[in-house]
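Cross-posting from the modeling subforum.

Setting up a comparison between two proteins and wanted a second pair of eyes on the formatting. Protein 1 (sequence, then structure tokens):
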Amino acid sequence: KNEQSPPVLLFCGWYDFFCTEQLHDFQTVSALSDTCRLVVGPYTHWHVLAMQPKLFRTLLDFFDKYLLKDPGAKDLPPVEVFSMGHDMGWQQLPSWPPPNLEEKKNAPRAR
């Protein structure tokens, strides 16, 4: 991986119309750099007020670590997602897609 790559923070919501592209961008950039971070929350593209606390905290931590190079800066997980399933809440992951992801397909019900 390239040691001189600029740090990248991707932030989107599960209901954002750019979510698929952000996930793809993360996979592409993180293959080249160890300084790429992804945060996916329970937001739409226009849900700015709801995401403010998480967004601002993440930005400050990211800036401390990569721009200020603060030795006491919080370690950031490569991926942080809000799980929408039965275990609803924020989860830290080592990568995207997660290593234990199971793909499930929903079939339409017969009438």
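Protein 2 (same layout):
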Amino acid sequence: MELIPAACPSALCSLRCTVLSSGASTCVSDPITPPAVECPSDFTWNPTVSLCYNVIEAPMLWQDCKTHCEALGARLAILDTPAKLDVLLSDYNAGSLFSVQYFIGASYNNITSDWRWVDGLAIDPWFLTSYPVTGSSGVCLNYEDTEKWPDAKTMCTGYGARLAILDTAAKLSSVLDDYNASLLNNTEYHIGAQYVYGIGWQWVDGTAVDPTFLSNYGITNVSGDCLVWTYASLVIQDKCDASEKFLCDISV
């Protein structure tokens, strides 16, 4: 979270005049440097990158983080340069940050199909290519521990999320991009679909899995099976009581 500098409505200046020997005077306009942003005592000020920020350790969903920061008169931090990112890394290395991951003020915009900061500005493509960032259709993924499918479903729900509904080739490929970028350490993850006897394949939100989707990946009707994302073929089926890491998502 960072404090937002107040907008300056107009340039401030003062007149500096000199009286000449002829009696005439000449004046020039000197700009007045506006005062620096006043950084509250419970925030940290870094003058090198002009960043006034505070770290919130309480776990929240991204949207809740954004709302919380705005309620404090701040914003979810826009860390739009390597220098600003390095400030946080230095704090982490110094033991000032207790977690290894923090939300910052950017999200993928499905309408414009690009990444944007919370102030509405598009993120520089160069910035994105410098880090393993890819766009995905409104999916926020969380990578968790090894569990059986029912336990994984319960844990995702406890996070305010759901066992991931990867119901398109694009979403499946987005996870593959993360795997290829070494953001995922396992080759298989539980996702949010199971075969329900007498009903068929269902996603965790109660909707039926598209039969075309199932046939594209060679999924058959076997009671007690659940869907698994895999790097080799994107989707396979396995027993729901098999222990796997799992993917949670938040529909945004």
